[in-house]
Amino acid sequence: MPTIDMSKTELREVNATLQSAAGTQATEAYVLENPRGSHAVAVGLNGPLDVTVKGSTGYYCAGMNKDATIHVEGSAGPGVAENMMSGTVVIDGDASQYAGATGHGGLLVIKGNASSRCGISMKGIDIVVHGSIGHMSAFMAQKGNLVVLGDAGDALGDSLYEARLFVRGSVKSLGADCVEKEMRPEHLEILADLLARAGADAKPEEFKRYGSARTLYNFNIDNADAY
Amino acid sequence: MSTPTTEPRQSWTFSKETNSEIRRAAATGIYDIRGGGAKRRVPHFDDLLFLGASISRYPLEGYREKCDTSVTLGTRFAKKPIELKIPITIAGMSFGSLSGRAKEALGRGATMAGTSTTTGDGGMTEEERGHSEKLVYQYLPSRYGMNPDDLRRADAIEVVVGQGAKPGGGGMLLGQKITERVAGMRDLPQGIDQRSACRHPDWTGPDDLEIKILELREITNWEKPIYIKVGGARPYYDTALAAKAGADVIVLDGMQGGTAATQDVFIEHVGQPTLACIRPAVQALQDLGLHREVQLVVSGGIRTGADVAKALALGADAVSIGTAALVALGDNDPKWEEEYQKLGTTAGAYDDWHEGRDPAGITTQDPELMKRLDPEAAGRRLRNYLNVLTLECQTLARACGKSHVHNLEPEDLCALTMEAAAMAQVPLAGTNWWPGKPGF
Amino acid sequence: MCGIVGLFLKKDELRPRLGDMLTDMLITMTDRGPDSAGIAIYGDAAEGLKFTVQSDDPAAFDGLAEALEDALGVSVPVTLKDTHAVLLVPADKQAGAVELLETRGLRIMGIGEAMEIFKEVGLPKDVAERFGLRQMGGSHGIGHTRMATESAVTTLGAHPFSTAEDQCLVHNGSLSNHNDMRRKLAKKGVFTKTENDTEVGAAYISSRIAEGASLGEALEGTLEDLDGFFTFVTGTKNGFGVVRDPIACKPAVMAETEDYVAFASEYRAFADLPGIETARVWEPEPATVYFWER
């Protein structure tokens, strides 16, 4: 199993090594040691590859990931897995702001808590947070599923589009145009699948579903207060 | 004999136009949304003149002596800078606001003229990638259609912080234009109003931007020049901070720069005229010792080769055109006057681009209207227009004795008005003085 | 726009290492703020007031001790540190000392029983080196690396800003109503020395405290009265506090162990702290005041 010590290797070399391995159907798993909060770790991987990061990362770890599986054995800084296309990213600790921002696909699992703006502008990614999420999460979220086993902060799902939000705990407040919605069998099915894939010990029935009331979809003067 | 009466007098403050807007607002309850840039008169390049050569300086011969127009963008950090034949690029305009055919026409015209075109808020289309030899991929707050594959097949990446029509504002595309294809590219339901965020979702400020630029470079192997586009609001600081954050190129868009759709109040009341933005931006780069190393691209109201030459003389490395390119393709052409009248407007004034009913078939997603634009013919018109701009710019540069358009200097200019003299920091014609000139 | 670090020690054993630990933290924040760097360090409380003064002209310190003794009638120890000097002035001689220092064109960076402030233009590692920050001990300290937004890259424009005894403030973000607030404070007789938005934040907090508010109340007040984006870290003689604006865009992360509480703009700054692997690490909530006191 190739191991790269990030305290002795330039970031460019680390990413170039992983990017070329991900492009060549390599089956070996990579281990990154001593990330020490570095930014842009394991970004732009463009194919199947297993990467384990032993420690905490800075901004944009696993950014724009495609098909790779990246496991951070620590916490992740702002914008982890931002704009992810596919693949899996697992964070053992907490995630900072903007986790999974604008993600188009794939699965992001955060075993700890996620800070504010988790899933902001998400476009198809699935995010499962074992802990709680901060304020303004799923702001302008367009597509995909955000699952939270703990609580959600203020203004959840503000200006939401078609993303589905599932929260087991309390929601401090809902954002503009976000409402609680009926949990139908198809939602329980989606939830069960995501919980299983995220290794989360929770029952789908314990969650509430939130989604867009769709009142802001076309401008209406009577909704001016929401703008 | 009747008593003489005064002529009915319209108020200057409450003009017919103003009153019509009050009535419109009262009837609808929503601010006016439109496309284009500021329509008010602001000090502009027209208020500057070139001095030309005479006895103290020697001009170059028009057809024999070379006047180079090439420009390389992205020489600071990128492994693959963009080399352009002319100092005029095509500004970012989205697929969605423009039809696919219009994007294709822009790509064709720009490629024939040896320059680049730019995507917009809506992702990269095959039409434009296929027909653009050099394509700049915009990285916007919405991140619609953003993906690493397009990032890698772009020739440069433009991180859009703001635009001149609306510094500090987000985007807007009304439901009429969100067709199935547009919606698919943006991951949105069809037919809904699409609001784009005013800030990037995952960074705020120059300290974060530096890290964002690092990420984009790491994803693209440090090959692509990274542009930062800002609206003309605080050009000195914005330019300095973009440069400090690691930009290769700074795109500075003055208030005459267009937009697909924004509140009229925003377009007309926020931002500084293009003319006023250039010198502070150049000063910022000079203060950092980065002028010409970080290239400055200026946009907003560029129409003629004279505008191009004046922008370069004030210190820009290149200019970018949007509205003018659309006009070259056929936007607002009087041949559609009858249809403009039906829409309650007239050729030249049509700016309801967001409604998607463009008679010229450019700012629309309507399949029938779109067919009115022949991308090949429109591309040729754009090529011709870009060539004219370049020839005009060369003509002026030669007259000032320059063998490269980048050798034009502020000292080659004078100003016709006090305002222009102050903004461009060049002497009022006939004097050696401008308002605020040090030493006076 | 900037990087912030802060360290508050709970155990005295670590006090000699404070400067060393803070310096490492500061240097990791260089990318966020390459223009200038500064640090406020809270050492042993002195008998009297420590004045930290600065001058770009080394000659300004020539004969300073003698001049102070002449003017104040007491001996004033002067310790030179590069462009700065720390003077120990009896508390009752404060006004006279300020007057003399101002006459001689020296800039007063801060005054306090415990606090010393050092800041200069340049890369954080160079600034730390020039002042010998690594060798400094103390109970707590705050550091800042600056990427100037709208005010000048000067020594005075660097953080921390001190606008009252033993109080200092560092800031990441950009205030959008600081000009109006500056005018309001001036009406109350509180004047700032620079065009910097952060100094207005510092002066606001000091003026609230001077009016009788607790530090906690003053920090709460920033949420109501200051507009824009900010993460503030503020130091006092006995503690330090953290507050983020309600939108909370600018990054902030904290770590706590039995030995210390640490603050930074990025986790990177914690990487070398002892026991960080098992520390409680979290992000301060928006619009929430955090405060530690000994």
TrEMBL record, chain A:
Domain Glutamate synthase alpha subunit C-terminal: 40-176
Pfam families cross-referenced by the UniProt entry: GXGXG
GO molecular function: oxidoreductase activity
Listed Gene3D superfamilies: Glutamate synthase, alpha subunit, C-terminal domain (2.160.20.60)
Highest rank taxon of the organism: Bacteria
PANTHER family per the UniProt record, alphabetical: TUNGSTEN FORMYLMETHANOFURAN DEHYDROGENASE, SUBUNIT C (FWDC) (PTHR39673), TUNGSTEN-CONTAINING FORMYLMETHANOFURAN DEHYDROGENASE 2 SUBUNIT C (PTHR39673:SF5)
Protein name: N-methylglutamate synthase subunit B
Organism from which the protein derives: Pseudooceanicola antarcticus
From TrEMBL, chain B:
Gene Ontology molecular-function annotations: glutamate synthase activity
UniProt-listed PANTHER family: ARCHAEAL-TYPE GLUTAMATE SYNTHASE [NADPH]
Protein name (Swiss-Prot/TrEMBL): FMN-binding glutamate synthase family protein
Residue stretches making up the Glutamate synthase domain: 76-330, 354-402
Biological-process GO terms, alphabetical: glutamate biosynthetic process
Pfam families per UniProt: Glu_synthase
Keywords (A to Z) from UniProt: Oxidoreductase
Composition bias, Low complexity: 107-119
Span list, region Disordered: 106-130
Family: Belongs to the glutamate synthase family.
Domain of life where this protein originates: Bacteria
Organism: Pseudooceanicola antarcticus
From TrEMBL, chain C:
Claim: NAD is one of the keywords in the record: no
Domain Glutamine amidotransferase type-2: residue ranges: 2-294
One GO MF term: transferase activity
Keywords carried by this UniProt record: Glutamine amidotransferase, Transferase
A Pfam short name: GATase_6
Protein name: Glutamine amidotransferase
